[in-house]
Amino acid sequence: RKEVEQDPGPFNVPEGATVAFNCTYSNSASQSFFWYRQDCRKEPKLLMSVYSSGNEDGRFTAQLNRASQYISLLIRDSKLSDSATYLCVVNTDFNKFYFGSGTKLNVKP
Amino acid sequence: SAVISQKPSRDICQRGTSLTIQCQVDSQVTMMFWYRQQPGQSLTLIATANQGSEATYESGFVIDKFPISRPNLTFSTLTVSNMSPEDSSIYLCSVELGTGEDTQYFGPGTRLTVL
To answer: Which residues of A touch B42 (CB under 8 A)?
Structure first.
C-alpha cells in the first residue's frame, strides 16, 4: 500500500470555480503535512503547510483529518494560473517525506 | 526559504558513463536530500546527504550506484554511476533549513537522459 494516495485527475474546471482535492495517508504516526505545487518541468514548490486546526491562505484552504487520515485542499475562485499538479506530502515519524503522485488541475477560460 | 542551484540543469549521456550533479545552497542548512522523479511519476527519496559522514540510502538505492558527497553545510553532489536508460529521470536536491520548520525546499532539478 502506498504511503500517500491521491486522485491523479485531471480536474478540468472553468475559471472562477471551486475545486477540492483529497489525499489519504497510511501512517497514523505521521507528524506534518504539506501541499506542494509543481508546474510542468519545474521543481515542486511549497504551497502551504497543513495544520491540525485547518488553515487558510487567500483562496486556498487546507484541512487535516487525523481520525480518517486524510488531507484536503480547497481552491476557491480558480485562476488560469492555478493550473498545475498538486502534490500531497506527509512527513512520518522518521522525518521522511512521502509524496503523493499528484493531482493535475486544468483551469480553463 | 533558501536559494538552491543545481548543475547541470540537463544532460544527455551515453549508457555506461557516470554523471555528477551538484547542489549549492546560499546558506548553511541542516539537512540535504536527493530525490528522483521519473517521467509521469512523483518524487522518490534516494538518500539523505549527511555532512561529514556517509549518506543514508533508502530501500532500493545503493552507494555504488548513487555515491553522494556532502563536504559542508551548503554543498552536495550526487553521482549516477554506470548509467542505463532506466536512469533517465529528473534528479532534485532539497534542503531543510533547520529553523524549526520541517519544510523542504527544492532545487530546480537536473533532467538526465541516458541513451
So the answer is: 87, 99-102
Residue with cell 506542494: A36
pLDDT digits (tens, 9 = 90+) for B43-89: 999 999 988 889 999 999 999 999 999 999 999 999 999 999 999 99
Cross-chain CB nearest to B108 (options A43, A87, A100): A43
What is the per-residue pLDDT across A51-79, written as a single tens digit (0 to 9) for each?
888 899 999 999 999 999 999 999 999 99
Question: What DSSP string describes A37-91?
Answer: EE-TTS--EEEEEE-TT-EEETTEEEEEETTTTEEEEEE-S--GGG-EEEEEEEE
Q: Are A44 and B106 in contact (CB under 8 A)?
A: yes
A vs B, Cβ pairs < 8 A, gives 36
Interface residue of A33, A45, A95, A97 to substitute, partner B, most B CBs within 10 Å: A97
Residue whose C-alpha cell reads 484536503 in the numeric block: A72
Residue burial B36-75, b: 16+ Cβ < 10 Å; e: rest: bbeeeebbebbbbbebeeebebbeebeeebbbbebeebbb
pLDDT tens for chain A, 109 residues long, are 788 999 999 999 999 999 999 999 999 888 899 999 999 989 999 999 998 888 999 999 999 999 999 999 999 999 999 999 999 999 986 668 899 999 999 999 9
